[in-house]
Each structure stands twice: as C-alpha cells, then as structure tokens.
C-alpha cells in the first residue's frame, strides 16, 4: 500500500514542533487549541505584551539523528526521553495495568506498586477501557485521587476500541472515540488523559473520521496527544498523511509488542517512521508475556500471568519451549553483567532506536523494584554484548530492501 506524505522531511523539520504535534495554538478564550485558561489551557500571564516587548531567541544545536535526548532524574536514577519527536518527557520505563489492576492483585497491592513506581521516578502509567472490564481504570483513578500527586507530574495513557456490547460501543467511529474517552475519564476521575491510543485499526471507520475525532478530543481538552496501538506502518503513515492534508493533528507514537522473540516491527519498521514523521514507540511485554522471568535465576515467576490459560499454553507450546531454551542460553551473559535474565531482557528493549518507553507489568512492588535494575544494565550493553545476544537468539531482523 503506497501513501503519499503531504510534506517533505525538510518541511517537517522546519515547522514549529508545537504546531506540528499539537495543532493551532489557542487564542484568547481557548480557540481551536483547547479550553480557555484553567488546567489545560496556556498558563495565564505567560507571554509578553505591548509593542516594546522583546523576545530573546536562543538556538540550540539539534540532537544527532536517531538519538533520543535522555536525562537522568535526581535521586531516582530514572531516565527520561521525549515521546517520539514531541516535547513530552516520559520515563523510559512505564507501568502497565494489564492483568493486574482491578483483577488479579488487590487494590492495596496496586497502590503499593503505583507508589513505588512514582517514588522511583516512573511518570508514565498506562491503562485501557477494557482491562478488567473498566476496573483497571477505576482502580488507577482511585489511587491517584487518594495520593493527591500533582497532575502535572505524571502521564496517563488509555486506549479506545472495545468497551461495550452494543455495535456503537466498539471500534473507532467518531461517536465511540468521543463517548468512550469521556467514559474512561469518568472512571479515572480525571479531566483529561495525556495520551489516548487508538487500540487496533478499524477497517469499518474511514481514516479521516478517526483523525478528525482524535483532533476533536484534543481540541476539547480531553486528551493532549494521540497515538496508535497495534497499527501497521502503512496505516500510521496514512493517518499522518490525512492529518497533513486536512490540517489535523497526527499521532505521536505507536504502542507495540517488543521482546527478544518479537522484533520485526519495532526494530525494522518503526525507526523509519520515527525519522520520517516523528512517531515514537512505547513498547509492551518486554518479558514475552511472562515467558522470560526471574525463575531462571532461582526466583519465582509472576503468579498473575501464570494463571492465564492462553499464556500457559503459549509457554508450554513447542515454540515456547524453544524460546525458553534460548533464554537459558542468555544466563551466562546475565551473570557476567551481574543481573537477572529479566533485567537483561528489559535493558535490551530499552536500547532499541526510537523507543521512548518500555511498559512493565508487575504484581508486587518488590517485582517492580527488581525490574528497575534494568537501568543499571543498560549502560553495560556494549555493541559487542548486543551482537553476542543476537548470535544466541538467531532471529535478528534484516532489511528486505
């Protein structure tokens, strides 16, 4: 499928990044960019006024091509990256709520996990409308409300696609995107989410309708950015092209599965989108849905994922057994680096080009803290070590050009 892009790479680089990613700036009273004043609008008194006002322009050198500007949090050691080529800074490790929140762990444990994550510098919390039939969003919202953390200090993402039994309560129609997001906000007890993802593509909804609906919820202040989840590269390019054609807001990131045994999309397709149109990657399942875990180092595997039938079947399948053998082959490298094989696998995901954040799924605060040890492993992943891992796995994707 060939999709024409409505502007060249030179135009993309030269356009103001705020206009490119967030649409027209709001004038007095909010305009098209968002609600007037308040939490979601531009800060009051932020600009100079009068004919004598002068603005000092400071030019900074551009980052090297393909390099994500990275900083380290004081006191936590957490690393922060831009979400794609937007200005939003997210922790390179995020917290997901699939399987756990509102389902297989208690609300008290969920609060312990979220608190540990926040205190260790994680600022990205991911959920969706269908996790535990909406209970994950309610649990996350209740915890955030009880903690009273500054809303500006963390990033909340949710996804839209499923949500109900009626024909109009699923998919990516304008109706469901708007109504579904409002229902998510009610469960989360928030005025807006930072990123709303279109979870899966919808062949029944025209791309223009999807992009217009996402632009609308951003302009209404219900979300600040939008992204895609489990979309193909051609579909993401089409969404970008439609946004350019009609002066709408394009997606800023794709959420995709990525781990030692799932590599093609994140390592071959998404980096090209990152360089061409600024779309970053938020990846999930760095431990292959529980197949890679600390059991190999004498620790206990995640009890939540171990009880899910399809995951158990996947691990016990012929491919699953071959993959477990590959994980065992990685143990000497992990021991040499002084880490667990799970920490090695997470660090390996973090080093991929264009990856803004890797989502962790944990069932206890202790498991979360153990996984955070991957940050120390990341600096030890030399090109030689990565080549050694690739040699053991034997599945490095190659360009088909």
Automatic annotation (TrEMBL):
Protein name: Potassium voltage-gated channel subfamily A regulatory beta subunit 3
Extent of Gly residues compositional bias: 28-49
Keyword terms: Cytoplasm, Ion transport, NADP, Oxidoreductase, Potassium, Potassium transport, Transport
Annotated InterPro entries: K_chnl_volt-dep_bsu_KCNAB (IPR005983), K_chnl_volt-dep_bsu_KCNAB-rel (IPR005399), K_chnl_volt-dep_bsu_KCNAB3 (IPR005402), NAD(P)_OxRdtase_dom_sf (IPR036812), NADP_OxRdtase_dom (IPR023210)
Membrane topology annotation: Peripheral membrane protein
SUPFAM superfamilies: NAD(P)-linked oxidoreductase
Polar residues bias: start-end ranges: 1-14
GO biological process: regulation of potassium ion transmembrane transport
Cellular component terms (Gene Ontology): cytoplasm; voltage-gated potassium channel complex
Classification lineage: Eukaryota, Metazoa, Chordata, Craniata, Vertebrata
Record-level Gene Ontology MF annotations: oxidoreductase activity; potassium channel regulator activity; transmembrane transporter binding; voltage-gated potassium channel activity
Family: Belongs to the shaker potassium channel beta subunit family.
Species in which this protein is naturally found: Pipistrellus kuhlii
Region (Disordered): 1-75
Classification via NCBIfam families: Kv_beta (TIGR01293)
């Amino acid at each position: 499928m060939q999709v024409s892009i409505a502007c060249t790479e030179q135009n993309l680089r030269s356009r103001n990044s705020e206009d490119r990613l967030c649409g027209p700036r709001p004038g007095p009273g909010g305009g098209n960019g968002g609600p007037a004043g308040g939490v979601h609008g531009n800060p009051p008194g932020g600009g100079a006024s009068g004919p004598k006002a002068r603005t000092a322009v400071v030019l900074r050198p551009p980052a090297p091509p393909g390099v994500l500007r990275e900083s380290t949090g004081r006191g936590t050691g957490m690393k922060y990256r831009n979400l794609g080529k937007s200005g939003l800074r997210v922790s390179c490790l995020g917290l997901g709520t699939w399987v756990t929140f509102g389902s297989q762990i208690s609300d008290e444990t969920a609060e312990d996990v979220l608190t540990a994550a926040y205190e260790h510098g994680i600022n990205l919390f991911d959920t969706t409308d269908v996790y535990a039939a909406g209970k994950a969003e309610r649990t996350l919202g209740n915890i955030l409300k009880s903690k009273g953390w500054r809303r500006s200090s963390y990033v909340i993402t949710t996804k839209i696609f499923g949500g109900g039994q009626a024909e109009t309560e699923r998919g990516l129609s304008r109706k469901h995107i708007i109504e579904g997001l409002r229902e998510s906000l009610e469960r989360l007890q928030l005025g807006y989410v930072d990123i709303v993802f279109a979870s899966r593509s919808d062949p029944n909804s025209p791309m223009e309708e999807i992009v217009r609906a996402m632009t609308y919820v951003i302009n209404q202040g219900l979300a600040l950015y939008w992204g895609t989840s489990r979309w193909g590269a051609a579909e993401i390019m089409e969404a970008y092209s439609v946004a350019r054609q009609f002066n709408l807001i394009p997606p800023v990131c794709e959420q995709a599965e990525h781990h030692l045994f799932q590599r093609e999309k994140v390592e071959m397709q998404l980096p090209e989108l990152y360089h061409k149109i600024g779309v970053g990657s938020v990846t999930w399942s760095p431990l292959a849905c529980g197949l890679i875990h600390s059991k190999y180092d004498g620790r206990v595997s995640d009890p939540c994922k171990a009880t899910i039938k399809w995951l158990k079947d996947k691990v016990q399948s012929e491919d699953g057994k071959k993959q477990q053998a590959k994980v065992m082959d990685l143990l000497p490298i992990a021991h040499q680096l002084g880490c667990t094989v799970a920490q090695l696998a997470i660090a390996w995901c973090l080093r991929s080009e264009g990856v803004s954040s890797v989502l962790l799924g944990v069932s206890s605060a202790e498991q979360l803290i153990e996984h955070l040890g991957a940050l120390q492993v990341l600096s030890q992943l030399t090109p030689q070590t990565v080549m050694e891992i690739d040699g053991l796995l034997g599945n490095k994707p190659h360009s088909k050009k």
